[in-house]
Specification:
By secondary structure, the protein is mainly beta. It contains 1 helix and 34 strands. A 5-stranded antiparallel sheet has the order 1-15-14-13-12, with no helix packed on it. The protein has a 5-stranded mixed sheet with strand order 3-8-9-10-11, with no helix packed on it. Strand 9 and strand 10 form a beta hairpin. The N and C termini lie far apart (about 65 Å).
Length: about 400
């Protein structure tokens, strides 16, 4: 049964034995190979059923133009990190694996500040309450001032941070690969509480980011569970097994919820690897509906619909209220898609060659295709007002806008 553990005064961070750490490292490598099966890393044999689909020409129905681009820092093409853009409305924040965090004017792309942390950053940044928080693959969590980038604090949580933290009014919440959800005081980084979930011996590399929604922190875990915790004290509000493992082998029993949950009003949406796309009641965790679907990248949502990218490259649209399928596309098979992002009446996904694909949200028909650059896009695009922002694994932050005719 998942438990909530109070911090120890003498040893606030638990450590892992060397055999357990080695086992998890092996599991991580196996999990990474699962993720990379469709990415042409293992050859390009024409007979390979997981060979990425070739792109097909079509007549664009939407014109998209690049508004600006800026370099954040070094690339991370091989590592496939959860480094994506974040925004407070007027600024865009981004980070690179070499430890740099930068802020840009959202409208024009002018760099406002850049700070070096000298850490292998792997998750974030997240922004809120005038703080910019990132996590690293060697267990550090760093908070910078959103105004000028000066470092406020850093703490080590003794485990890899491979997902963006979540920032609430008084705390930052960090998900680590050893199954913990940790609350850190925004003022000084002091640990407030942590919750623990069991981690299977074999799991897919990566973790879902926590989500703060009013008094709750909600997160999916590698054991197929979604849980909600009281944001102030860490007590379990509800804990539900959404994706029970099935199959005979350990690979068949992978059921990680690596995709970040989506919270809209009274509903929580989750999707798991070799699992289900599900809707849960925010207050109780009751499963409202679920459909079979396998994804490690995530979900996008608009007012009425949900959109999900399968690990096979399939795109699915369903009604939020019922889970009823609206459309499904398979022409981007094994192109290693990001989570979908609604934008300008479209649903947008990035792929392993740096392309952004725009599909009509209502029908699923292709509307546009642009290339941010030649590097992979791992994190979902971000939409702020009328602009779509994408951070490529080459370290470029690119802004796109709909190219509308100018009024005379």
């Amino acid at each position: 049964m998942p438990s909530v553990l109070a911090p120890s005064a003498s040893r606030p961070w638990s450590t892992t034995s060397r055999p357990a750490a080695f086992a998890r490292a092996v599991a991580a490598l196996v999990g990474l190979s699962v993720l990379l099966q469709g990415c042409s890393w293992f050859g390009s044999d024409d007979d390979d059923p997981r060979r990425p689909a070739e792109l097909v020409d079509f007549t664009p129905a939407l014109k998209v133009r690049e508004a600006w681009s800026a370099g954040v820092g070094g690339g991370n093409d091989i590592l496939r990190l959860a480094l994506g853009p974040a925004s407070d409305g007027s600024r865009i924040f981004a980070a690179d694996n070499d430890g740099r965090v930068a802020a840009f004017d959202a409208q024009r792309g002018k760099r406002l500040w850049r700070t070096g942390t000298d850490l292998p950053l792997a998750g974030g940044p997240a922004v809120g309450s005038d703080h910019v928080v990132t996590g690293s693959s060697d267990g550090w969590v760093v908070s910078l001032a959103a105004s000028d980038g000066h470092e406020e604090w850093r703490v080590n949580v003794a485990s890899e941070v491979l997902a963006a933290p979540a920032v609430g009014p008084k705390a930052a919440y960090v998900r680590t690969v050893d199954g913990k959800l940790i609350a850190l005081d925004l003022a000084d980084g002091r640990q407030l509480w942590f919750a623990q979930q069991n981690v299977p011996r074999l799991s897919v590399r990566g973790t879902g980011a926590p989500v703060v929604d009013h008094n709750l922190v909600i997160c999916g875990f590698d054991n197929g569970r979604v849980a909600a915790y009281d944001a102030s004290e860490g007590s379990v509000v509800w804990d539900v097994l959404v994706d029970p493992p099935s199959g005979r082998t350990e690979v068949e029993r992978l059921a990680d919820i690596n995709a970040t949950v989506v919270v809209i009003g009274s509903d929580v949406y989750s999707v798991g690897y070799q699992g289900r796309l599900s809707a849960l009641a925010r207050e109780s965790g009751q499963i409202l509906w679920s459909v079979e679907f396998s994804s490690y990248s995530g979900i996008g949502a608009d007012l009425n619909n949900l959109y999900a990218s399968a690990d096979t490259g399939e795109l699915l649209a369903v009604e939020r209220a019922s889970g009823r399928e609206l459309w499904r596309r398979g022409d981007l098979a094994f192109r290693d898609l990001t989570a979908p992002t609604p934008f300008a009446g479209s649903v947008v996904v990035g792929d392993f060659e740096g392309y952004l694909h725009f599909f009509d949200a209502a029908s699923g028909e292709p509307r546009a295709r642009v290339r941010a650059d030649s590097h992979r896009i791992t994190s979902a695009p971000l939409v702020v007002n009328d602009t779509l922002y994408v951070l490529t694994d080459g370290g470029d932050l690119v802004a796109f806008r709909e190219d509308r005719p100018r009024e005379k």
